[in-house]
């Protein structure tokens, strides 16, 4: 029965290492997605440290690929040194992921304060005649999130751009897609998105941060199982170096 349990642990461990390779790609994708999305919303942030959880996820994804390679080799060869190194590296990555989760929760809570602190400055710097990066960001957000202004379209009346144009209109990015003849005029509010952008930007960014958190938690659980299986094999290897190898003809380290 004990031998069966050891063989099962080794088989599970090999399978988990294959999962680590897949996880490396998934985590790298999640981290890259956060970076790309952040680039669309970065004008609403002043704290660049909000990207730290994404950096952690990409670093962990890269390490998982290396871990998977080490784990497969160590498991197949029944290498005591390799399995010990595998457990130690997994433990370090696990601690890093836990740190990423904690940072994710911290910055997720700070998103609303960050956006609230900077969004008016961004909107007041809008220049519809010669759009700069911040202006393009506002137009992008209003079209993508189907919103207008900070709390509603009336916020545009207090901006420098609105007072300079003197045409009683908001940017065309406030126009609903269904109205092709919309000019942004405040005399036709039914043509404009009624919801403000601040709440939607906060919601979007918090959702992105949750992707990071859940991805880290999911693979941290897999790593715990990997460490458990490796410890079972390593302990058995230390007590009885004559137990059956996973692959016949393998050599001990």
What descriptive keywords fit this protein?
Tetraspanin_EC2_sf, 253 residues, Tetraspanin_CS, rod-shaped, 6 helices, mainly alpha, transmembrane helix, Tetraspanin_animals, transmembrane, disordered C terminus, 0% strand
Uncertain parts: 1-6, 241-253
Overall shape: rod-shaped
Order of helices and strands: HHHHHH
CA radius of gyration is 26 Å
Structural class: mainly alpha
The major pleated sheet works out as: none
Report the helical percentage.
55-70%
Distance between the termini: 25 Å
Proportion of residues in extended strands: under 5%
pLDDT averaged residue by residue: 76
State the total count of DSSP E strands: 0
Number of helices: 6
In short:
The chain crosses the membrane at residues 12-36, 48-71, 83-107, 208-235. Helices cover 68% and strands 0% of the residues.
Describe the structure in your own words.
The chain has about 250 residues and is an all-alpha fold. About 70% of the residues lie in helices and about 0% in strands. The chain is built from six helices and no strands. It has helices spanning about 1-40, 50-75, 80-125, 135-145, 160-165, 195-240. The radius of gyration is 26 Å and the shape is rod-shaped.
Element layout with pairings:
Blueprint lengths: L1 H40 L10 H26 L2 H45 L8 H13 L14 H6 L31 H43 L14
Helix pairs in contact: 1-2, 1-6, 2-3, 2-6, 3-6
């Amino acid at each position: 029965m004990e031998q069966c349990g050891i063989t099962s642990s080794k088989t599970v461990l090999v399978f988990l290492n294959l999962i680590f390779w897949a996880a490396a790609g998934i985590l790298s994708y999640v981290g890259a997605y956060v970076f790309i999305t952040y680039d669309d919303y970065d004008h609403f942030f002043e704290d660049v440290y909000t990207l730290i959880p994404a950096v952690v996820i990409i670093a962990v994804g890269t390490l998982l690929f290396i871990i998977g390679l080490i784990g497969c080799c160590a498991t197949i060869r029944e290498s005591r040194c390799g399995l010990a190194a595998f457990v130690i590296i997994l433990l370090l990555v696990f601690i890093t992921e836990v740190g990423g989760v904690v940072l994710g929760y911290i910055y997720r809570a700070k998103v609303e304060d960050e956006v609230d602190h900077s969004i008016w400055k961004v909107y007041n710097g809008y220049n519809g005649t010669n759009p700069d990066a911040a202006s393009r960001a506002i137009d992008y957000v209003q079209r993508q999130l189907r919103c207008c202004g900070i709390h509603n379209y009336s916020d545009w009346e207090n901006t420098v751009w609105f007072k300079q144009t003197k045409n009683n209109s908001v940017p065309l990015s406030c126009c609903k897609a269904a109205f092709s003849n919309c000019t942004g005029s405040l005399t036709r509010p039914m043509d404009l998105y009624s919801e403000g952008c601040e709440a939607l930007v906060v919601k979007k960014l918090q959702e992105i941060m949750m992707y990071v958190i859940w991805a880290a938690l999911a693979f941290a659980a897999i790593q715990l199982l990997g460490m458990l299986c490796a410890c079972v094999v390593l302990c058995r290897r230390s007590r009885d170096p004559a137990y059956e190898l996973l692959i016949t003809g393998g050599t001990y380290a």
